[in-house]
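Entry 14. Structure prediction run on the chain below.
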Amino acid sequence: MRRSVLPAILLAAFYVSAAQAADAIGFKETTLPDNGGSRPLHISLWYPTDNAEPVAEVGANRVFHGISAVTNAKPLGEARPLVVLSHGYGGNWRNLNWLAGELVHQGYVVAAPDHPGTTTFDKSPTEAARLWERPHDLSRVIDALTGDPTLAGTIALHRIAAVGHSLGGWTVAALAGARFSPDRFLEDCKAQPNPRTCGLAAELGITKANAASLDTYMGDARIGAVVSLDLGLARGFTPESLATVHVPVLIFGAGIDIGDLPAKLESGYLAENLPKTTTTYIEIPDAMHFSFMQLCKPGAVELIEQDTPGDGIVCKDGGTRGREAIHREVAERISAFLDKAIPAQ
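Output returned:
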């Protein structure tokens, strides 16, 4: 397992641009319909464009900052690499909006679905209990974008990667070929009870009755690299399946535990069992679990606490650096990783 020791400021020296940088970020939203068994998916798309207007702040609300983008812009013509994003439990496409913008400036097309049942906008218990659908959601997004260049431009089929935060990290690990065993997970919860992860088992359908759906191969051969941002539920992945993951994996762990989600037992477990030669593990000492989400506005903690006491933690970080500095380090490391993992040919 490779462990990065270079300071973030040096990583810029490794940049080989994913593609020629675009003048602006294009943004649009679309929906993939129910196609006879697959659930409807709301998708947000970011992509390079040379359109200059209309510019809007996308992904903002009274708590979180958004990014500037040209809405419903025309994509640029040449083939571009694709990154699909997966949000965490209870999250949505806005959570990694900041990273999407950074990647577009490096020449990538970026797409993020709202996973039904586990998104802010859809908390259906039935859909939440179909955890195995999350990796399939990302595969459907790839299908859509590679099959229809009018959505976000032409996709370079040999340059596709996936990035996920929290439960999204679990999702992209499964998409890379890791297999999840409900039996293993539930036994681990007996040995190491954890209310934050084990407490979600029933809600996410992690039961022996669903073993056939969960303990199966959910990988997508089109994925060339994976990035996990402080994932959870990692110890349900079998060591045997992790050892066979053949794509490069970059794993970030948050150095400050928010309580019952220690990096050593989640991201660390993933890193220890993946192939050492293709895995990089970086633990950011002053990051907390929610440091990977979008930037918070002044007074955000107080606003959140008024509505949902206890949830203000999503806008808290653990060290002397602000979230913007943590984002800068993470974005630089991801860009350098992807340039090497899915290079232009």
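The chain has twelve helices and ten strands.
Filed with the rest of this week's runs.
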